[in-house]
Specification:
The chain is α+β, with helices and mostly antiparallel strands. The protein has eleven helices and nine strands. Helix 1 packs parallel to helix 4 and helix 4 packs across helix 5.
Length: about 350
């Protein structure tokens, strides 16, 4: 399969280089990257391949797609410039010509860029993308995720309830979801195992400081199958960390507690700004605070109690196991791009945003 991907990439690169105008280039793009093209279909069908082939095929297809998109963009700029020169030569007095400088086109916001980059990594590993409602019920947001009745996040001071209620334990009470985890339950209700999904989306908590905002974005993941172990979780997150932060990264799992996983872990990535907490200048690293590790997400094995809420859909805790993880998309963006204050991402200052075009 990887050989065929290499053939497609080589053929497409030749066709891109041979395109003589933007119209012809667009036809090349549709031929190799369009909805019905072979390469995108390979990416969409990675999950159907044998387990031993998924990672290599997904990675190769993903890299080929990104390389072709970059080549098309570069060639499009060249052809557009040449065509503009030709038009100017034909019409030397052009009163409709844009002013100088030509207005720049916009680009995807940093959060959208980071979300899509994370999605690409997990799609390459055979995961599908799932979504769910932002206005949730207490049942899906807390109860079915094994939250204890005394958990502080249930309080009205810690969660945005859509309507004031005297009974915050009412399963039907509605609120703005505090995480994307409710989609795990909804997805398992709709699909029997095995299931491999990542869940991006907005979540809401009443926090506001340099590292928290009332509305932010999460990416959660869920994998349920037979014989899944904590080692599978660690290997998956290692692949993710290296794809986002560099091939030299390592991950570390530390014991923690989350209501919906058992055992639960905090996951750290080795610092990409220093070695052992010391920078190249011999100073204590400010990014990892001299620890050599940076916390990036929480994870763990799905608690059997959670499977109890979807047992009738085939999730018998005696037969299946699974892992789940969750990360803040803003945090990943801040770490990767060195953003010092989360609020900068939302201030809409063009001077800041245009750095990530």
């Amino acid at each position: 399969m990887t050989d065929r991907i290499a053939e497609i990439r080589a053929e497409a690169e030749q066709a891109i280089a041979a395109a003589t105008d933007t119209h012809g280039l667009e036809e090349v793009r549709i031929q190799y990257l369009g909805r019905k093209a072979e390469l995108p279909n390979l990416l969409r069908n990675v999950a159907e391949l044998p387990a031993a082939e998924r990672a290599a095929t997904g990675k190769a297809a993903n890299e080929a797609r990104k390389a072709l998109e970059a080549a098309i963009e570069q060639r499009a700029e060249q052809l557009a410039a040449a065509e503009l020169d030709q038009r100017l030569e034909r019409d030397r007095v052009d009163i409709t010509l844009d002013g100088d400088p030509v207005p720049q086109l916009g680009h995807l916001h940093l959060i959208t860029q980071t979300q899509r980059e994370i999605e690409d990594v997990f799609i390459g590993l055979g995961f599908n993308v799932a979504e769910g409602p932002e206005v949730e019920t207490v049942y899906y947001n807390f109860d079915a995720l094994n939250f204890d009745s005394t958990h502080p996040s249930r309080l009205m001071t810690d969660t945005f309830y859509v309507q004031p209620t005297d009974d915050i334990f009412d399963p039907s009470a509605r609120l703005l979801r505090v995480h994307t985890s409710p989609v795990q339950i909804r997805a398992m209700e709709q699909q029997p195992p095995p299931i491999y999904i990542v869940i991006p989306g907005r979540v809401y908590r009443p926090d506001n400081d340099a590292t928290h905002t009332p509305q932010f974005h999460q990416m959660e993941g869920l994998a349920v199958d037979t014989d899944i172990t904590l080692g599978d979780l660690q290997g998956t997150l290692l692949t993710f960390a290296r794809a986002i932060f560099g091939d030299e990264r390592q991950v570390r799992l530390r014991p923690h507690f989350f209501p919906f996983t058992e055992p639960s872990v905090e996951v750290d990535v080795s610092c990409f700004n220093c070695v052992g907490g010391v920078t190249a200048e011999g100073e204590r690293c400010g990014l990892c605070k001299g620890e050599g590790w940076i916390e990036i997400l929480g994870a763990g094995m799905v608690d059997p109690n959670v499977f109890g809420y979807v047992r009738r859909n085939g999730y018998d805790p005696e037969r299946v196991q699974g892992f789940a993880f969750g990360m803040g998309i803003e945090r990943i963006a801040m770490l990767k791009h060195g953003v010092p204050d989360l609020r900068l991402i939302y201030d809409n200052d063009v001077r800041f945003l245009e750095q990530f075009g």
